[in-house]
UniProtKB/TrEMBL annotation:
One record GO biological process: response to stress
UniProt cross-references to PANTHER family, sorted A to Z: TRANSCRIPTIONAL REGULATOR SLYA (PTHR33164:SF64), TRANSCRIPTIONAL REGULATOR, MARR FAMILY (PTHR33164)
Record's keyword terms, sorted: DNA-binding, Transcription, Transcription regulation
Matches recorded under Pfam families: MarR
GO MF, one example: DNA binding
Protein name: MarR family transcriptional regulator
Domain HTH marR-type positions: 19-152
Transmembrane spans: none
Amino acid sequence: MGDNNARSSCGLPMATPYDKRFGFLVSDIGRLMSTEFDRRARGRLELSRAQCRLALYLSFLGPMTQAQLAETLDVTPMTVARMLDRMQDGGWVTRMPVPGDRRAFRVEATAKAESMLAEALNVGDELADFALRGLTEAEQGQLIGLLQRVRNNMAAPDAG
């Protein structure tokens, strides 16, 4: 059956097969990257992928409130609070009260977290090399540039 006659699992015609749909590809690549990151990081990193991501955002963007972290990570405030409890117990982050707001805490990565990020970035670089194998340097640069443009489009205030 050609692409024009492709059908979904419920029998409806599909204009574009799933493996050629942008949203499906981006989501599936993200899932595969996450799984492979976890496999490669096992035994090398003391933090989970989610905790590494949190520490990385704090390192790149600087200290922020728990609410800002939840928004940045696209998780619930309760999820961030639980992650931070474990990370604070392990010495990876500090939480300081925000003056004038008894309920808010400013979160900062510790030196311990900063030193671990180098290894997390090494795992990420190895994974990128693996994922991009077979592409020339020019193709890799073009792909990264195009993905940055897509991200900028999605982050624009008028997105949607």
